[in-house]
Inverse folding.
């Protein structure tokens, strides 16, 4: 507006600005509340973790052994095979790409809240995952955390400094979420758009949308991913392991940038003590299982001195808390041929892996008295 | 600090709340502090780097301005450019060249193994290096006067809305505004707000959704022809929406502060030839290379051969500017060859020039779109062997299901991209996108139009946003 513009015009411009801003805030807020998608319209992605559904499943099945983890667990063990081999009623509560913050929420808000009484809970982890609370709490996991968490999560909020009631960033986020409750709307909107894309390209073939999604999931399945990208290693400091690292004091090749190399079990920097406290309070035993990362051509995967020291401290702390640690990282029978992508095990090797795993943990977990044939 | 974060929203609100009450000199002081906080948010030592750049180029600019002889002017210009581009070379290219040279030596048996040097690349270094260099060159050429105020110059180099990913500004636009009194009008604030909301829609809905598809396809080790090209098309949508989003949020934020930044895009996917594409895509970089590389090399003077050589050098450097990697070099050369060869091809096939009426224009748009997307494969795929196998895929080898999936992925990406790639050009064609100083904005009809744009953008974000966020692509350059 030029300086010579009249006061009346200035008032009009102010009213127009207020009008535009108000429309952009108020109408979408009404829209979020007015549009309620039907349950069937909400995007059921194949790997979509729904806490309510998971809890219902656990209530129904009442497993005595629950395994928690990410794709390290998913690519290694199938609960049917494990139940069959072990005679235990085993189930997984897992989601690819998750880490210790979400595993803590799995334990607290899915396993414990389901009311079941598992005898054992096993947590699959890789190297220093357990004492790196902020790792993978952003991006797609932010959405999962929002669905998993309660409004008040004292341990989570104090550890990750995300207290929604405090701090201008947390407060603003909370305000936005309250003003625009749109998770289901987004899910339904994206599903509709994907359905439209399917409909536009079915080229007369009468293929159900569900089958199109299955096709897509198969197309992008673990076995078809590239080795050079190390899909699971995105963000890692270096790619493939390098021979001769055992004796040096550098972090291990393939470790993520920012991974902690000193073990610290303080409740203010790790979810571990909170997980242990939950186990003590609710009467289940905690077992931690360290997986073997992708080995070298000679099937070895030596640890650096730093990592060896870290593991020794982790073991002694866990044992002092009455927990158990098993470690397959130096097992020569887990060969390179069993790996498909990054640290993932191929589907073809899952049975062999499950038998190896059970042989390792049977003395601790103990065979069950029921054989599952579900 | 990412534009799409709550931190940025709060940062902008706090800044605006203080900024408007200050006189110009204090505004510029606050702006500099804000820009350094914004840049230091990523890594505090980055501020030191931009500070060195600013001091060197400011001093050289002053010295060039004060120099009485051409030789002295040239000396200070050389000093400035050597400093700026040496810093850029160390951070961006040292690792690349060391690795390639030592790999060659290792292959020849001169060295036991190649060296790998990893240096963290400061965000936006290529952008502010070019912006600062353009100022020194313009002072040398006598196009702008050497800036006296270090504060104003520091603001010009580090202006936070466009610091990390452009548009690459020139002194005659942004520095001139830095030195002038300013008070953003209500219309300017309004259109800045709408631009930011629209930019957020472009990023959170279009770019991130297309990225999800492209990233998946490019992580496949054995993508078939239709799936790969579906992914390339998704990447084409992603990169345009992503970069356009950054530019729009930058321009919107600048407008709220009373500045007008230049435009960076003019519907590039409606280009009718490769040269036309480069007049519409990343215009601030294209014009930089035109003014400071292509024309000094001789431009189109000196015959077809020299023109082609100059274009190839310019595009080679443009490719290298995007990243220290062979795929970017290939991408630059690919465009260089096509831009240089286009007039000859058009001479031979008149349909490539302005003929054939509307069908001819449609044909040219489709052809240019296809060629640009072949270029995007080179741009997105860093593995040269994978580029080779991608370009030699046989469409007939793909099963029907893969055609269906490839088409589905492409359709999904295009549906997300529709508002930017089709509705926005249409709105502009019917003159429904006003400039910030357009007098028509004072009418209620235009207020309604802007309110509708902002409201629909917010509803679009709420109904279709992608839960997997990603950084802006051009941050890495």
């Amino acid at each position: 507006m030029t300086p010579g513009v009249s006061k009346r015009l200035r008032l009009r411009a102010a009213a127009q600005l207020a009008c535009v801003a108000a429309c952009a805030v108020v109408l979408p807020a009404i829209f979020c509340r007015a549009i309620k998608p039907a349950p069937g319209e909400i995007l059921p992605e194949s790997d979509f973790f729904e806490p309510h559904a998971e809890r219902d499943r656990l209530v129904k099945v009442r497993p005595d052994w629950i395994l928690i983890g990410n794709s390290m667990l998913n690519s290694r063990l199938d609960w049917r095979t494990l139940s069959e081999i072990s005679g235990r009623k085993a189930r997984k509560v897992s989601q690819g790409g998750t880490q210790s913050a979400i595993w803590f929420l799995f334990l607290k808000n899915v396993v414990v809240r389901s009311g079941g009484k598992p005898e054992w809970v096993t947590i699959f982890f890789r190297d220093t995952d357990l004492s790196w609370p902020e790792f993978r709490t952003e991006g797609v996991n932010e959405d999962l955390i929002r669905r998993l968490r309660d409004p008040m999560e004292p341990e989570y909020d104090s550890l990750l400094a995300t207290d929604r009631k405090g701090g201008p960033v947390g407060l603003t986020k909370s305000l936005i979420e309250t003003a625009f409750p749109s998770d289901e709307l987004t899910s339904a909107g994206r599903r509709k758009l994907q359905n439209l894309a399917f409909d536009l390209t079915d080229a007369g073939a009468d293929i159900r949308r569900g089958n199109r999604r299955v096709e897509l999931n198969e197309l992008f399945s673990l076995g078809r991913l590239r080795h050079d990208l190390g899909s699971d290693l995105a963000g890692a400091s270096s790619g493939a392991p390098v021979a001769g690292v055992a004796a040096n004091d550098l972090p291990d090749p393939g470790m993520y940038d920012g991974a902690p190399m000193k073990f610290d079990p303080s409740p203010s920097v790790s979810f571990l003590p909170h997980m242990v406290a939950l186990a003590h309070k609710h009467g289940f035993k905690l077992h931690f299982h360290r997986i073997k990362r992708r080995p070298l051509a000679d099937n070895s995967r030596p640890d650096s001195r730093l990592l060896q020291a870290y593991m020794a401290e982790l073991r002694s702390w866990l044992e002092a808390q009455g927990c158990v640690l098993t470690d397959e990282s130096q097992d020569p029978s887990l060969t390179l041929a069993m790996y498909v992508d990054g640290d993932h095990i191929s589907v073809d090797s899952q049975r062999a892996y499950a038998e190896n795993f059970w042989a390792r943990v049977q003395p601790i977990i103990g065979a069950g008295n029921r054989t599952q044939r579900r | 600090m990412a534009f799409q974060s709550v931190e940025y929203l709060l940062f902008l609100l706090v800044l605006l709340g203080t900024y408007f009450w200050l006189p110009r000199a204090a505004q510029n002081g606050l702006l500099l502090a804000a820009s350094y906080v914004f840049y230091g948010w990523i890594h505090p030592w980055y501020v030191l780097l931009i500070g060195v750049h600013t001091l060197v180029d400011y001093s050289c600019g002053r010295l060039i301005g004060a120099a009485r002889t051409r030789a002295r002017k040239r000396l200070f210009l050389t000093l400035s450019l050597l400093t700026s581009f040496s810093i850029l070379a160390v951070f961006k290219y040292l690792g690349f060249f060391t690795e390639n040279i030592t790999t060659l030596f290792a292959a020849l048996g001169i060295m036991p193994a190649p060296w790998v040097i990893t240096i963290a690349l400061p965000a936006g270094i290529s952008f502010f290096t070019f912006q600062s260099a353009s100022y020194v060159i313009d002072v040398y050429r006598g196009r702008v006067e050497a800036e006296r105020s270090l504060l104003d110059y520091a603001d010009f180099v580090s202006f936070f809305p466009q610091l990390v990913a452009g548009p690459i500004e020139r002194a005659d636009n942004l520095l001139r505004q830095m030195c002038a009194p300013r008070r953003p009008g209500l219309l300017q604030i309004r259109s800045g707000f709408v631009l930011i909301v629209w930019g957020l829609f472009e990023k959170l809905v279009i770019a991130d959704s297309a990225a999800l598809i492209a990233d998946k396809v490019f992580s496949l080790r054995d993508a078939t022809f239709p799936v790969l090209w579906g992914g390339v098309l998704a990447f084409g949508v992603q990169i345009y929406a992503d970069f356009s989003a950054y530019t729009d949020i930058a321009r919107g934020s600048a407008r709220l502060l009373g500045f007008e930044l230049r435009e960076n895009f003019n519907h590039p996917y409606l280009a009718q030839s490769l040269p036309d594409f480069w007049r519409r895509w990343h215009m601030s970089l294209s014009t930089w290379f035109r003014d400071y590389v292509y024309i000094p090399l001789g431009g189109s003077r000196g015959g077809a051969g020299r023109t082609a050589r100059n274009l190839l050098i310019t595009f080679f450097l443009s490719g290298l500017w995007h990243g220290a990697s062979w795929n970017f070099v290939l991408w630059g050369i690919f465009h260089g060859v096509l831009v240089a060869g286009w007039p000859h091809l058009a001479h031979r096939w008149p349909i490539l020039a302005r003929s054939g009426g509307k069908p001819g224009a449609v044909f040219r748009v489709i052809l240019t779109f296809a060629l640009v997307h072949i270029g995007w494969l080179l741009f997105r795929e860093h593995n040269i062997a994978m580029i080779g196998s991608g370009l030699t895929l046989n469409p007939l080898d793909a099963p029907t299901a893969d055609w269906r999936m490839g088409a589905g992925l492409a359709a999904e990406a295009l549906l997300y991209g529709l508002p930017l790639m089709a509705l926005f050009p249409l709105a502009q064609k019917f003159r429904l996108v006003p400039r910030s100083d357009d007098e028509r904005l004072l009418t209620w009809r235009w207020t309604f139009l802007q309110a509708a744009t902002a409201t629909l953008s917010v509803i679009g974000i709420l109904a279709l946003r992608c839960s997997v966020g990603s950084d802006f692509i051009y941050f890495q350059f």
About this structure: Chain B has a mean pLDDT of 90. The two ends of chain B are 16 Å apart (CA to CA). Chain B touches chain A through 56 residues (CB under 8 Å).
